[in-house]
Write a structure and sequence with these properties.
With 462 residues, this protein is α+β, with helices and mostly antiparallel strands. The longest helix has 23 residues. The termini are far apart.
């Protein structure tokens, strides 16, 4: 190993040796236990002192932590201290950054699991309730994300062409990017029910009636929830409401919730953690604000996000996202050809961009944002990046979105829009992905829309 420290086979064989030795060690006297792990961790430190970026050693060290001391909180805390010492020497050490994120998530989980393992009658303090909510929403404390984003900002300005810092920034931002309702499609009436298709910002599972609240004139009304598609996760879910419940209503609202905000006891928190709404990356943080919507004859559905209560954590998320967007813009101004910055700009716009509106001023602002995203895509595409085809397809989607926005403003090139909607390559993309970016209420959900019929045909919805 001294001669070939970057050989996969040697490190894999060492894992087998250690597992065998630990099994033997566990049969010996208590005072001898832990000696093997201590020796191995020291060995890793020696290798990393010679080459701090050797990912074979980092992977092996991570395996030791996960396999042998996975439930030991002090051990994980000590490991994070070691990682910090390495990052203080080189803050763009990707292996150290990756392990810092992974261990912080794991440490937070251990602390929350310890809280929830107490007797059910135990009274949780405000700080303990806060920790459980933060883990449920973000996997890590929000203060950790804020502190780390400040560190990343410094790193990006110093080494803006180093990919590790961009990846870490994206990881942190992704933790606080909520699952949102991106659009509503009216599928009409069936069996005295109004069928509304809800488009989410990512594929989710476990959506239940208790997670999707519908109010008619402030009264909670019954609804049925049904997933669209055959897989466990879907962008699209159907909400079926009795027609009679909506007929006389003048104020319709929909609210998407994971009820961690109102859980204060151990039994309540346990229940919420058992089967929450989450996306395919395990994200459970949903945008808890309300959506006003209207059913009209000429337009399938008009909807608009409405923040009725100022939730401190949600305000902080939006504040942090805005700050990072401005930081990325500054780097782009200084380095227009920086493809990492351009890609991050697109990511931020996708994850935190507001939902569409029928207000002309807001539409004009969104048109400007969309043009900026298209410009960023063109810059990235000119560099012939990895995943060129996927990025080119995404650029097509934003080009189409731009034309749809122009149509809302009465400025569309109708021939160009018609050609874009007829583009067969779009129908081969994930339709949920298209919809959650393009579902602009007055155009894209209109029943004469080509995409509306494509959606119904694709998912075999009657």
């Amino acid at each position: 190993m001294k001669k070939y420290p970057k050989t996969y086979g040697l490190w894999h064989h060492r894992k087998w040796c250690i597992l065998t030795a630990v099994n033997l060690e566990n049969t010996q006297e208590v005072k001898k236990k832990g000696a093997i792990l201590a020796f191995e961790m020291k060995l890793c430190e020696q290798f990393l002192a010679k080459d701090e970026r050797n990912f074979h050693v980092w992977n092996y060290r991570g395996w030791l932590t996960d396999t042998i001391k996975r439930t030991d909180i002090p051990f994980v805390e000590k490991e994070l201290e070691f990682i910090e010492s390495k990052l203080s020497q080189n803050f763009s050490n990707f292996s150290a950054i990756y392990n810092k994120g992974k261990n912080t998530v794991h440490l937070t989980k251990l602390k929350v699991d310890k809280l929830l393992s107490q007797p059910e009658e135990t009274q949780l303090t405000e700080a303990e309730q806060h920790l459980a909510r933060e883990y449920f929403r973000f996997d890590v404390p929000l203060d950790f994300i804020r502190t780390e984003l400040e560190s990343v900002k410094t790193g990006l300005y110093m080494q803006s062409k180093e990919e590790p810092m961009w990846l870490y920034q994206k990881w942190l931002l992704n933790k606080m990017a909520p699952i949102r309702i991106q659009g509503l499609v009216n599928f009409g009436e069936k069996d005295e029910q109004v069928v509304i298709c809800i488009v989410f910002s990512s594929k989710i599972k476990n959506l239940k009636e208790s997670n999707l609240l519908v109010f008619a004139d402030k009264n909670l009304i019954p609804r049925e929830i049904q997933k669209v598609g055959k897989t466990n996760y879907s962008y699209l879910w159907l909400c079926k409401i009795q027609k009679s419940a909506l007929e006389e209503a003048t104020d319709l609202k929909m609210k998407f919730v994971n009820d961690v905000e109102i859980a204060t006891t151990i039994p309540q928190l346990k229940k919420i953690f058992e089967n929450p709404v989450e996306d395919y990356n395990g994200k459970r943080f949903v945008d808890p604000t309300s959506y006003e919507f209207k059913l009209t004859k000429n337009v399938s559905i008009y909807f608009r996000r409405k923040c009725e209560t100022e939730l401190p954590f949600l305000m902080l998320v939006e504040e942090l996202a805005d700050a990072e967007l401005n930081n990325v813009k500054e780097i782009i101004e200084m380095e227009p050809e920086n493809s990492f910055a351009q890609a991050q700009f697109v990511f931020l716009q996708e994850e935190f961009l507001s939902n569409p509106s029928d207000d002309a001023q807001e539409l004009a602002h969104e048109l400007k944002q969309t043009q900026e995203i298209i410009d960023s895509f063109n810059t990235v595409i000119s560099k012939k990046p990895r995943h060129f085809e996927r990025i080119s397809n995404m650029a097509k989607i934003y080009d189409l979105k731009y034309q749809l926005l122009l149509k809302l403003l009465g400025k569309a090139d109708e021939e160009k829009l018609k050609a874009q909607l007829a583009d067969k390559t779009l129908s081969q993309l994930d339709l949920g992905r298209i919809l959650h970016l393009l579902l602009l209420n007055h155009v894209y959900t209109a029943k004469e829309s080509d995409v509306y019929h494509l959606l119904k045909e694709y998912f075999n919805i009657a």
